[in-house]
Amino acid sequence: MSSLYEAVTEARTLLFVPGNRPDRFPKAVDSGADIVVFDIEDAVAPAEKDQARDNIGAWLDEGGSGIVRINDDATPWYRYDLEMLAGRGCGVMVPKVTCPRQVRQVIDVMRPEACVMPLLELATGIVDARDICSVPGVTRAVFGNADLGRELGVDHADRDAMFFARSQVVMASRAAGITPPVDGVTTAIEDLDLVRADAEHAAKLGFTGKLCLHPRQVKLVAEAFGPSAEEVRWARAVIDAFETGSMTAIEGEAVGKPIVARARLVLDRIDRGRVAEA
């Protein structure tokens, strides 16, 4: 498995940096984020998209790594973004995906080791998420709460309003056999308590990572997706009981194979966190 694939599938924190600000590229890489998303889409004004694309291409040509968020296929910049990506093996985040064809178009122009991540942020993409996630070459899905909220006419930060859509993306990823998905952004950049609460909510639903808009969000998000001390204590008790053959119940909870499997996943999250911190 390539180091890029491992980075994309194990990432808890994915930090956006605008493609028109190459001075921020090294700072984003040094921020502590697991992986950086170089953006040509929402963070870049139309007049600066060509320069942003050139900046990102130069970064990749010089040996830099990361994920590139391109413009969607309904824009005039899409074909130029694809031309820049052709023959590369980097990560790509494809916005506003509503059908498998949109991800196949990107996969077809890239090298086999490329990691393609559909951004599911429109109602049609959410409803058809399993088909999209099942396309060979899709590495991990991303939930886009901001655009979905706009389309539905609801507050993108309202967890109740977004509950079904988030769960749909988690279920689709599992059914397709790919890595659990990445949650969307918390746009209230200064509200660090909200960032933590949003990340903890996403983790409870089955997400294993989150998009970050600012370096100050990175540490909080990473902590939220790591197991708590109480979860670790419970998981170790379950595994110890299982391995000694004394397993019947733990703290009044009947313990069977699914419970043991969940305990192993909790402990695996510790190991993944250590990889990310190394």
Task: Indicate the topology.
Elements: H1 3-10, E1 13-18, H2 25-29, E2 35-39, H3 49-61, E3 67-69, H4 78-85, E4 91-94, H5 100-109, E5 115-120, H6 123-127, H7 129-133, E6 140-143, H8 145-152, H9 159-176, E7 179-183, H10 192-205, E8 209-212, H11 215-224, H12 229-244, E9 249-250, E10 253-254, H13 257-277
Helix pairs in contact: 3-4, 9-10, 10-11, 12-13
InterPro entries: Aldolase/citrate-lyase_domain (IPR005000), Citrate_lyase_beta/mcl1/mcl2 (IPR011206), Pyrv/PenolPyrv_kinase-like_dom (IPR015813), Pyrv_kinase-like_dom_sf (IPR040442)
Protein name: Citrate lyase subunit beta/citryl-CoA lyase
Keywords: Lyase, Magnesium, Metal-binding
Structural class: alpha/beta
- Can you identify the CATH class of the largest domain? Alpha Beta
What is the rounded Rg? 19 Å
Segments where pLDDT lies below 50 for 5+ residues?
Answer: 274-278
Percent in helix: 40-55%
Q: How would you characterize the largest beta sheet?
A: 8 strands, parallel, barrel
% residues in beta strands? 5-15%
CATH third-tier fold name of the largest domain? TIM Barrel
Task: Record the strand order, biggest sheet.
Answer: 1-2-3-4-5-6-7-8
